[in-house]
Amino acid sequence: MSHKPFFLIDLRPLKRNQKGTSLIEFAVVFPILILIILSTLELGIMLAIKVNLQSCTMAGANYGAGGTYSAGTTRTASAIAVMNNGISGLLNMANLTITIQSFPSFTIANLGGVGTAGTGNPGQVSMYKASYNYSPSSPLVAGIFGTQKVLQATTYTKNEGTFPS
Fold this sequence. Notes:
The protein is 45% helix and 18% strand. It contains five helices and four strands. The model has no long low-confidence stretch (mean pLDDT 83).
């Protein structure tokens, strides 16, 4: 019994038989499709967190720059409370870090130096920063984005010239 080499085999009969090709195509495309869907969902969640952090830093900065604060607390503690109240249920508070620093001017704040902790005095510049350690929910997506991602939002504001007493 002689066998023909594989390159001499007549493949024309196989060309007409299309059974199972859709299943094979689906099996090839399905993992890629799932990866695209999960990545899109993960990016949407990260964007929602980033927007929420930015909104909270802006609310805290607006509250702290006005010099008002809740009775029995400091301006810094009141601004942090405003920022914490704005955090949505989407975030795990244990992964959230809020930093408030004050600088004499925007120029010094822009240089990236370390300021004084707290909201500062009238006329000073305050930096409100919220950092969130985010872990992707899908191990498949974690392979692309990494297992840990730090999402940050920072707002700078100048305190009013005088604070209410």
